[in-house]
């Protein structure tokens, strides 16, 4: 029983660096996607800086196009004035 427990602990300790590496790679990919998504948001804000309903609609449209072109997941966009939440 003790040998099995020791063997299981040894195997778990030996495989731990590989599991940590996989999590790190996934984290790196996620951070890159967030950075690209933030760049899309910055570009849209620069192009349509006003806070009118028309500018916000154009900004949201540009944001969706940019995310789609870079194959990124869509973001939850702000609710338009006058729309129910």
Please, could you describe this protein's structure?
With 85 residues, the chain is an all-alpha fold. The protein has helices spanning 2-47, 53-69. Helix 1 (2-47) packs across helix 2. The longest helix is centred in the first third of the chain and has 46 residues, at 2-47. The model has no long low-confidence stretch (mean pLDDT 82).
Write the layout of secondary structure elements.
Layout: H1 2-47, H2 53-69
Helix pairs in contact: 1-2
Determine the strand fraction and express it as a percent band. under 5%
Q: Which overall shape is indicated by the principal axes computed on the Cα atoms?
A: rod-shaped
Structural class: mainly alpha
Low-confidence blocks of residues: none
Say how many strands there are: 0
- Let me know the average pLDDT: 82
> Count of helical segments?
2
Rg: 23 Å
Please provide a brief summary of the model.
The chain has 85 residues and is an all-alpha fold.
